[in-house]
Predict the structure.
Amino acid sequence: MLTRRGSEQSIIRKHEEALHQGYHRWPTLDFGLPPAMGDERWPAELILATWLQAETGRPPVNGLEYRVGRSGGGFDALDFRFLPPEQQLSESVPVDTSIPLNRRPGERPVEIPIPWYGGGMSFGSVSEQIMLARAKAAKEWRTFTSTGEGGYPESLVPYRDHVITQIATGMFGVREETIQWAPIIEFKYAQGAKPGLGGHLLGDKATVAVARMRESVPWVSLFSPFPFHSVYSVEDHKKHIDWVRTVNPEALVSVKVSTPTDIDMVAVGSYYAGAHIIHIDGGYGGTGAAPEIAKKNIAMPIELALPRVHRFLEQEGIRDEVVIMASGGVRTAYDIAKAIALGADGCVLGTTELVALGCTRCGNCERGRGCPFGLTTTDPELSQLVDPDWGAERLSRLYASFQAQLRDILRRLGLRSVRELRGRVDLLVYRKPGDSDERGNRIGSGQAR
Amino acid sequence: MTTACPFWLAERATEDSHLVSYSHTSIVGFPGAAVVTAVRPTYRRYRIAIRPAPDLVRLPPRFRVKVEKHRLIGLVLKELVRYRGDLPVILSRPCVYGVFSRPVGGLAPKEELCVGCLRCTVQHPEVVQIYPNPERERLGDSYLKPAYVDTLLYEARTGHVPVRGAGYRGPFGGAGWDGMWTDMSEIVRPTRDGIHGREFISTAVDIGEKPPQLVFDERGEPVGTPPKVITIQVPFLFDYPPRSARPRLLLEILARAAQEIETLVMVPVDLVVRFDLAGSHVVPVVEKETWRWLPRLSWSPRMIALAGWNRERVAELERRFPESIPCARVPMDSDVLDLVRQGARVLHLTADYHGMQGGSFVMDLIRRAHQRLVEAGLREEVTLIGSGGIVMAEHVPKAIICGLDAVALDTALWVALQARFAGECRDPETAPVSFPRLEPAWGVQRLKNLAASWRDQLLEVLGAMGLREVRRLRGELGRCMFQAELEREAFAEVAGYGADA
């Protein structure tokens, strides 16, 4: 499936080469900023900065803004209260960026060396090449990526120690062996971009291969129902967890939820049901297709949910027994650090990884053949625009840049471990776009550092 | 729709009117009222028939495609050499949407097909650049933004819910409606089938008098005048167009669409008479200046709106049209409690087209009005309709959460009919709105498509919350979140927050 054959070869190679050149040339700013690129959450600068990091493994030094967007609130209005230079840790001091994913006392410890892993993107919403690139990068960094709800392509099996099996309401592609392979099993109750609405794969993307994987009919739109029809209480939820732990006793259980008003209660309920990880997906999260009304209006952004959950779990005395992973609009290394300061243990990345692979955020993922860059598509021709090895390399370099920035942030805060940052809202400062940071650079201006 | 009948019966009959047809007989003592006597389970599910209704007026393309032609020719020549004349490779173009699909390719791009994916410019930055079309940015006005116009036109064209890939693209929350999020439930709700399949979520609302209880005499017969109630199948009705644009055809389109959607349309009484717009779906609006037209109304509307509240005029109205529900059309910052104590039971609270009244935004004004009536223990007896600043599908559930029973739509309707705003469209008296040459069937279908799309989006919001009927959404402030409150809670300990907030 992943081999290139026939007369398409030359055409694909031509465009692949041109695309790679474009990913390299645009961040140099020789052509300025693409006038039609970007939006408030992902301005053109941030997209180009992510491309550049995916190429070089380092943050930009040419003035491209790589820390924040221009949304005017949330992460974009937060900054850090860095220590005076003389009190910051020196480069020679080692800084630990690892986090545990299992805080349950007496259970098998699982750690990842960076406080993030890849979020669920199903086969169908993205190509198999993209899934493979993400799995390869996850393996290299000893972290994880998630299948999403679309089945477990065989090409992922060699990477199974780093692949989370997602079980969502449609149960697409869930089999006993995919549960047994998984080091982490993720129950997706809701998705931030379309909370309470289930999954949505439009017919154009339900190709023969996708339909086969999902055991459905080609070219027919697929809706995952909402909610799990077998879960109407925390007790039902616990039965779910008991079920997968019977099939795979070693697996950690993650519960992915959105951000309703009672997200704090949802988190406590998930903990008592036996979840190791509570994955909170904020309202501004990514998607392959969702009603616009849902993306903007249903459920709260992750920045506002995290402090509520963190505090409530602390009050309940269980904060140190459960891991909170945050997603839904986490774009940069700075966003990751801010999410942790607001109360998360770590983050889950989705759109950021796609941007690193060339996404321009045009929002045409759902239509026709899907993404013209070969990312969110299952079109046999377009999907070949991304070579999995090339993609894995891009993601690895992005991770390297993020880790370097995270270490830099921690040093400037005087912290030796990212674990010390969790819940430290006292290290944050609220600044509106246009305000200056501690070095006198305007936030969101692209002049930083 | 249901004719006037006792409240509990009206509710029962209307509740089920879209589910099961019942046979009705009169109630003794209440001529014209209805009672359920026998059930014939013939299922009729409410739905709005959608059909494609393409734009009459061609829109400017979203993007401008600027090609450096000499560089393009240079690129093709270079590829001729590099690929040794292999034409399929050389002629293979980066656009998958057909922008360069003419025989001359990039020399004459089809801008109307460009979706702004930017693949061409990523691959060949020195040859092609994509720009947002400034003409497109001139659609709408400062409140009804160009992006809103795009969405409304899509909805009116297709009747579908706008669905797109990638996450939210806009600012973090924002002012007005944007600073409010609706709730969802992780596990308890009607299933997705509830939205698009077997189960039913009701979007019907009642407009009229709603006494807290009925009184019965010794014989068990209800005492007094039966309350008058109208049920409409969607929680939105149509307001009349601004003074600058009230052609007969437009009003006929509004009226026919309202009839087919099973809702109501408000029309100035003089135009009702002059254009002969009789019908159970037409609500004449009477102003001081048009009061003299009232005697010429030869039929009995189900509701008549009075601009302002004047006891004498209301009494006169009730004398002339005893079957009609009087509705007080008043500015949204009016003292609603006082009006209700004076006897008003249906209030249409108005703001300007940008949602402002007396210096406040409708979201705050609706909450205030609703809260006053709740505190006085009168909210359940009153119907609140609101208009002004409700221009997107999400504004409907948000306005209802804040306390309205139903909303009256205005500028969104005009945009659906491809009206152009010549400047700020704010004051209904002076709003500079012009319509294209309207074709009746097209106009009706556009409004039906818009209504269908908005209703489906309402179902998405209700479904996410686990609510089975929109009536339950009214005033449910516990099922929403306000940005200001959430930020105060989340960032209370963040330095600098208080100062900036």
